[in-house]
Design a protein that fits this description.
Nucleoside_phosphorylase_d, binds 2-acetamido-2-deoxy-beta-D-glucopyranose, five-stranded mixed barrel, 3 domains, Nucleoside_phosphorylase_sf, alpha/beta, signal, three-stranded antiparallel β-sheet, Rossmann fold, 9 helices
Length: about 350
């Protein structure tokens, strides 16, 4: 009866709306997935858990604190806290896009990111789990022409597009020369640049700049409670770290789409920017969270010395699995604190 009572115009409108909604859903996400997402969101809000790679996600899925939701493979519950876990894949582009999709599609109240990292900090050891206060993307550069120096303005600097504020890596400082020799380098210098950010609560198309992106104040204060966690020491029955690793809240971490296994560059990142953890994703997650106004924190365990060790090969080959397990242990304890 209700159907026949409807005017033809109203029916038409309903049909058009349904078609339009389906078309919109198809544009970004298949309709069936978008229906599933809407269904999942009825259980929200969730905590978003952003994980770089499979070997970092596996130990979380195996953790006794984790129980998968019955209905959907992508909805998971850690302890009493409902979480959506996403795996980004390697690098800044993947992690930025995945974090944006997570925040766009799901009802997410905050983000916990975890993974492994290289260590540039002589005060810490392989296996330690860091929680940096600030993150920078160190892969956005202005590459200065040969012959120009620190006193020369960069291309487009006067527009406010680029700055000399964060310093430069000068390739000639790293040329291998016989004692007493001096040499320039045609690669000259790259100057580190802040990202342009467009906060969702800002003026549209009006940029701000961000180099050191802070984690959420409340999350960071809470993370103090993690310092007493006892972490695993051994990869297996025969390979163990010399000392038991610890949780360390530190000042800085940095990320770029480059795997650092180079002592000279590690030394530069440490002396020039004061970083501890070096990875390939966190700053992208931090920047997207900042633009969207979502609280964010990252836990990164140190799997290697980023090229600064005396071992013949990168230590991650031996310690990555242990580091990943410890990163999961700390991230899960943090999620419980939010409980
Ligand atoms: C880089 O080194 C070259 C050669 O020593 C020097 O001329 C130039 O000014 C340096 N640039 C910066 C940014 O330090
Ligand atoms: C333990 O791990 C190390 C490093 O990966 C490996 O060389 C060694 O064979 C492993 N030992 C056992 C008993 O699995």
């Amino acid at each position: 009866m209700a159907d026949t009572a409807r005017s033809p115009a109203a029916t038409m409108l309903t049909l058009l709306l349904v078609v339009a909604a389906a078309a919109v859903a198809e544009a970004a996400v298949p309709a069936i997935a978008s229906q599933a997402v809407r269904h999942v969101n009825r259980w929200g809000p969730f905590l978003g858990v952003v994980v770089p790679n499979g070997f970092e996600m596996e130990p979380l899925l195996r953790s006794p604190d984790f129980s998968p939701a019955k209905e959907l493979p992508y909805l998971d519950v850690a302890g009493e806290k409902k979480v959506i876990i996403v795996m980004t894949g390697l690098g800044m582009l993947n992690s930025g896009v995945t974090t944006q999709l997570l925040l766009t599609l799901f009802d997410v109240e905050g983000i916990v990111h975890f993974g492994i990292a290289g260590n540039a900090d002589p005060n810490l050891h392989i296996g330690d789990v860091t929680i940096p206060r600030y993150w920078a993307h160190t892969g956005l550069w202005n590459w200065q022409r040969y012959g120009a120096g620190p006193e020369n303005e960069l291309a487009l600097e006067s527009n406010g597009d680029y700055t000399r504020k964060y310093g430069a890596l000068n390739f000639s400082d790293y040329t291998v020369l016989a004692a007493g020799e001096k040499s320039g380098n045609l690669l000259n210098s790259v100057w580190y640049q802040p990202e342009e950010v467009f906060p969702t609560n800002g003026t549209p198309e009006s940029r701000r700049h961000a180099f050191w992106v802070p984690v959420d104040d409340r999350y960071y204060r809470l993370s103090k409670n993690l310092e007493s966690i006892t972490l695993e020491r051994c990869v297996n029955a025969t390979t163990c770290l010399a000392r038991r690793p610890a949780v360390a809240r530190v000042e800085r971490g940095c990320s770029a789409s480059a795997f650092v296994d180079n002592a000279a560059y590690r030394g530069f990142l440490r002396s020039r920017l004061g970083v501890t953890a070096i990875d390939m994703e966190t700053a992208a997650v931090a920047l997207v969270a900042a633009q969207q106004g979502a609280p964010f924190i990252a836990v990164r365990s140190l799997s290697d010395l980023a090229g600064g060790g005396s071992a013949e090969s990168n230590e991650a080959g031996v310690f990555a699995a242990l580091a990943a397990r410890n990163a999961v242990a700390v991230a899960v304890e943090f999620i419980k604190l939010l409980g």
